[in-house]
Amino acid sequence: MNYLTIPNTTIQASQLCLGTGGLGSRLTQAESFALLYAFAAAGGTFLDTAHVYANWRADLPKSISEKTIGRWMQARGNRSQIIVGTKGAHPDLATMHIARLSPAEIVLDLNESLSHLQTDYIDLYWLHRDDPTRPVADIVETLNEQMQLGKIRAFGASNWAPARMQAVQDYAAAHNLHGFAANQPMWSLAHPNAAAFGMPGLAAMDAETWALHKKLNLAAVPYTSQARGFFSKLAQLGADGLAEAERKSYLNEVNLRRFQRMQKLVAERNAAPSQIALAYLLQQPFPTFPVIGCRTIAQLQDSMAAIAIRLTQDEIAWLAA
Q1: CA distance 100 to 223
Q2: Least crowded by CB within 10 Å, which of 6, 183, 246, 303?
Q3: What is the domain-level CATH number for residue 253?
Q4: Domain that holds residue 124
Q5: Tens-place pLDDT, residues 106-136
């Protein structure tokens, strides 16, 4: 495993981050614990969850992902060894058009997440959505207050526009406060079609956001980092064998060109397409911590192998061209 420090923080985390959206829902608690244990045993320390995860399942307790992680850390006694990132301030799923980013809503979700996770602090607290109508002053002041209280070590943005992130950083700098330590966008080697954005308010890495990351040396923690296995499925099944949802989300001329280029690196590195796709993210010119969404230990091991693959900056640029 490789470890990086998130700039402007004291947080050192494994460069691969385990996505936990399926813990306690798609996976049973026993399966969830086994996956978490395997990740930790392989040197993984960074977990990504959210207050809202699996709340679309009416048959399950609310925030089951957070609660499963809390039970696991309590059972293992390893809270101090884990970097916990969770997201809050997501709109209610029944009223996605109504933002929830007031100071009171941020603090409410944070306190509930602390309870679910059975901890008194969260390492990296993400704002799951933005409300562009809300002044950044409210947001920055609220999160700095929570840092002062010791409830969070750092905070970040998820699904925010680059101009809004810059506004947060500018306000924080002008008032000697902490700004965003990281950004969590949708990002992979695969260029997404409109259908890839399954919910309102999602934001993908684009040229403007990438430039902001490079300028600020802002850490990125991309979700959907392997495009739901698109390149692996394309290699195994061909374009005609892809499921309709996969074709709608990722089948386009850009990705077919990138897939053809990827084949050269797959052969040279004796690697899987999914590993080359992760290596592309791992070696960007600013700190990146791709979120890997594994359901099985075999998938986890496959993703872990990407850490050892080295790509040059020329190869990275060529892949994405």
Answers
A1: 21
A2: 246
A3: 3.20.20.100
A4: 3-320
A5: 999 999 999 999 999 999 999 999 999 999 9
